[in-house]
């Protein structure tokens, strides 16, 4: 019996199961923000950069340029396109890894930084709703039936 595609591991890649969509605590939006990260992964210091694949107030899916291990604790600096100052997230935990792609969960973020991040995510969600109003209403109707 073969593993489902979501559980297959490429040779040499660290892997941990991704959180199923229905179990995520916050809705994610696609937004290709630039970010930098640093921390300790395994027994080595890692410093990298990359782009965000999806974004929420609780975590991110990212495409980095340095490999990390599941469970690694990193500091992340997120550069939002419409803001001058980046958002510093003091501590994130690597939740899953697939090559240089990985997901992180926010553990420690300052109050002001969280407000900025939440406002940005809500703005993106509002823009998505304006772009696809018929899909939103169709899904609400389907759920009600």
Automatic annotation (TrEMBL):
TM region(s), chain numbering: none
Pfam families according to UniProt: PilZ
Xref: Gene3D superfamilies: predicted glycosyltransferase like domains
Record InterPro entries: PilZ_domain
GO molecular function: cyclic-di-GMP binding
Span of domain PilZ: 22-121
Domain of life: Bacteria
Protein name: PilZ domain-containing protein
């Amino acid at each position: 019996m073969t593993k489902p595609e979501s559980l297959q591991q490429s040779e040499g890649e660290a892997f941990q199961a991704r959180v199923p969509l229905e179990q995520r605590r916050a809705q994610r939006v696609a937004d290709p923000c630039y970010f930098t990260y640093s921390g300790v992964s395994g027994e080595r210091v890692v410093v990298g950069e990359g782009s965000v694949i999806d974004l929420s107030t609780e975590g991110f899916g990212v495409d980095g340029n340095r490999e990390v291990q599941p469970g690694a604790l990193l500091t992340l600096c997120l550069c939002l396109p419409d803001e001058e100052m980046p958002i510093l997230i003091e501590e994130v935990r690597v939740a899953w890894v697939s090559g240089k792609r990985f997901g992180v969960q926010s553990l420690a973020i300052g109050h002001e930084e969280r407000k900025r991040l939440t406002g940005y995510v809500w703005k993106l969600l509002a823009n998505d709703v304006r772009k696809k109003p018929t899909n939103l209403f169709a899904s609400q109707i389907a759920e009600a039936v």
